[in-house]
Design goal:
By secondary structure, the chain is α+β, with helices and mostly antiparallel strands. It contains seven helices and 17 strands.
């Protein structure tokens, strides 16, 4: 990676926290000044921006401090950057936000439009490219590429690159058995925007979901006036990544995702106003560094509130 001349490039000789390392190497810089550098996103470890003062450095790491004004920050209630380097941006998306516009030319705010504005504030010629998508009402982790070449590569080799993909769902009722594997064949009706599931090979795409029930709760009318239903918190690991796979699979077991208007009962069965599906963990082989990177997003508080 080519560095700008005004950047300060420092090589780490021994293990240390990022704060201690910068305080020792930046001419006796005060702790508050180091925090300001980090807050302004002016520090990189390797090629990734780092904002945590307690980040653990290893011998051989390269720390770069920009003497410029730093990168612009992303401040949006529906989207937060959890990782960023010269090749990729990983974000945590809130429900209610599309990944990309459903129709060309739409003026609707999407994860893509927010990130596009963000990267162009840094560089007017910069671009951002969608690698995969989450449904509008699904929250959690999303990856975007900084070049079209990288986007094409990651899309083509997505199955080989992804090493872990875990979702958390709040489901109606109790899955039986409590832990297992769902295998069906899915066929997408694009005209009606719905996916159909078959337990036998009917020419559709095979879809495999591993699930484990983490917790079951029976609510009372006093606790949640809207319902006295039983709910399950379910962890799901995808072996395939088909459109609406988790939503269709849980519905096929008679336990649709809470708040699912398409495959379940929508708000009629939901104590909270959202589809209760969250992309919690995403790990993949970085296509440039070839190292595995892993990201985790906390389970939404409202899921746990239903189970209290």
């Amino acid at each position: 990676m080519i560095k700008r001349k005004q950047d300060t490039v420092l090589k780490v000789a021994e293990e240390a926290s990022l704060m201690d390392f910068l305080m020792s190497k930046m001419g006796g810089m005060a702790r508050s000044s180091v925090k300001q550098l980090l807050g302004q996103r002016r520090v990189k470890v390797g090629n990734a921006i780092q904002t945590r003062h307690d980040f653990a450095l290893n011998a051989g790491d390269v720390v770069t401090v920009s003497s410029g004004r730093g990168n612009s920050q992303l401040n949006h209630p529906k989207l937060k950057i959890v990782y960023e380097d010269d090749d990729l941006i990983v974000v945590n998306k809130q429900p209610g936000l599309l990944t990309v516009a459903a129709t060309p030319g739409s003026s609707e705010t999407t994860a893509y439009s927010i990130l596009r504005a963000y990267v162009k504030r840094q560089n007017a010629r910069a671009g951002i490219f969608v690698v995969h998508r989450l449904d509008r009402e699904t929250s959690g982790l999303l990856v975007f590429a900084r070049s079209q070449e990288l986007q094409h590569y990651m899309r083509e080799y997505w199955r080989e690159l992804v090493t872990e993909r875990t979702y958390i769902a709040l489901a109606e009722g109790v899955l039986e058995p409590r832990e297992g594997k769902i295998t069906t064949w899915l066929t997408e009706d694009k005209r009606n925007a719905v996916v159909y599931s078959s337990p036998v090979d009917d020419g559709g795409d095979i879809a495999i979901t591993n699930y484990k029930t983490l917790r079951v709760s029976q609510m009372t009318n006093d606790q949640l006036p809207m319902t006295n239903k039983c709910y399950s918190l379910v962890e799901l690991h995808l072996e395939t990544g088909r459109t609406n796979q988790i939503r269709v699979h849980l519905a096929s077991k008679g336990c649709p995702v809470v708040g699912d208007r398409k495959y379940g009962h929508g708000n009629e069965s939901s104590p909270i106003d959202r589809l209760c599906l969250h992309a919690k963990v995403l790990a993949f082989i970085h296509p440039v560094t070839e190292k595995t990177v892993r990201f985790e997003s906390p389970v939404p508080k409202e899921f746990n509130r239903v189970l209290m």
